[in-house]
Amino acid sequence: MPVNLWLQSVDFLRDELPAQHFNTWIRPLQVEAAGTSLLIYAPNRFVLDWVNDKYFTRLLELMTERNNGEVPDVSLLIGSRSQSQVQQPAPAPAAPPAPVTAPATSQPAPAPVVAAPPAAAAPAAKPATSNEPAEGKSVVTRHVSSLNRSFTFDSFIEGKSNQLARAAAWQVADNPSHGYNPLFLYGGVGLGKTHLMHAVGNHLLQKKPGARVVYLHSERFVADMVKALQMNAINEFKNYYRSVDALLIDDIQFFAGKERSQEEFFHTFNALLEGNQQIILTSDRFPKEIDGLEERLKSRFGWGLTVYVEPPELETRVAILMKKAEQGRVALPHDCAFFIAQRFRSNVRDLEGALKRVIAHSHFTHEPISIELIRESLKDLLALQEKLVSIDNIQRTVAEYYKIKIADLLSKRRSRSVARPRQVAMALSKEVTNHSLPEIGDAFGGRDHTTVLHACRKIAELREADADISEDYNNLLRTLTS
Ligand SMILES: Nc1ncnc2c1ncn2[C@@H]1O[C@H](COP(=O)(O)OP(=O)(O)OP(=O)(O)O)[C@@H](O)[C@H]1O
């Protein structure tokens, strides 16, 4: 129940704050649920800015903890609930109740520091502007972006697959808006794009704690825009996004087909670039390949630097597992990390998920992590995988991909159009199944194991030298293992 989430968190915050602060800033807030979202009403802009600035991040943290780690959808608004049942936090004990509609004027009012909207100006004196709807309605103000503090450069494992992306992100973090703007990271799911984006944001905030770094998913941008339109607050929406130091938008492919959002984003994008404010975007594909995205956006996305994040190679996957285990203070033997990494190839999120399951199993059974324990705890996933990545399935997938017949893969034909896909299929069989070289040779029309070995070496070489082969191989690997 979202309202309870808020009330419990506020209750917790009450113990962390001096009573006078609680009563002045938190108590006047009212809460209302709107579907799965929470609307928090502040009586005036001054309280809103102050709460936004000083307490909102902490409140979001508290709510996230109580919401199984999921960041709830919360908006801070000016106004009050229209219904009769106003949910207001109870006052903190041992302190006189604070005024509900205005903060104590004797209270010193330092300027807002983080993520304050542009209009965050003088206390309570701000008159209603033409952007502000009539009394009783609310002006939408963005919630403070909540960066995941654990997504840092330190916790990001570098490997060949993400080296360029990491270097570019680091460059942006170190020298925002003067290097690559926008930075566009793209690649398959769960490969660390969001992690890198947050790492930049965290670094910017570390260097300049007052920086306005706003992270959001593209769907949130769309939803906020719709809400702003409904509430006649589109100017405030525009001003907010144009006032940030860095705008981080995840999964930009969700803009596809949403013309009004693209239009708004287009203008925001231009304004930010002109103002030398940093933009970082992620997507699951190359900008030009996002169907339903306006050409002018596609072309602008390429103005800075566009970097592909590839699935990590085996060594990197092992290093990621070792790092995650170390972070969780869990003893993970190297051969166990290797065993898991060999089997979860295309997505770091799944890799992490597998490790979490193994760790949980080890806790429950009070047994140290071993290959046997891993087999037991990941039984269903491993069985599923083995089924998916049989040599038969590899042959079928490769034949479909290259538009040739399975029989060609097994035949003696040596033409390049058949021989290369056959080598790719053999190399994949070696990489993703546990079959031996002779077994693989047998499955490919009774070939010798040295032929399979040669194919594996050849494909490894070509993946280094030939971008097309490398892309084909990665695509196939992803199809087979995700
Ligand atoms: N190189 C890496 N080092 C450490 N952790 C990583 C690395 N790559 C990914 N991860 C972890 O994998 C998980 C998924 O990464 P992330 O959310 O950044 O993926 P993504 O590419 O943004 O995927 P999606 O497109 O689904 O949003 C995160 O927990 C992240 O910390």
TrEMBL record:
Gene that this polypeptide is encoded by: dnaA
NCBIfam families documented for this protein: DnaA
Organism: Thiopseudomonas denitrificans
Protein name: Chromosomal replication initiator protein DnaA
Residues covered by the AAA+ ATPase domain: 179-387
Function: Plays an essential role in the initiation and regulation of chromosomal replication. ATP-DnaA binds to the origin of replication (oriC) to initiate formation of the DNA replication initiation complex once per cell cycle. Binds the DnaA box (a 9 base pair repeat at the origin) and separates the double-stranded (ds)DNA. Forms a right-handed helical filament on oriC DNA; dsDNA binds to the exterior of the filament while single-stranded (ss)DNA is stabiized in the filament's interior.
Pfam families: Bac_DnaA, Bac_DnaA_C, DnaA_N
Region (Disordered): 82-137
Domain named Chromosomal replication initiator DnaA C-terminal: residues: 390-459
Residues that hold ATP according to the record: 190, 192-194
Any one of the GO BP annotations: DNA replication initiation
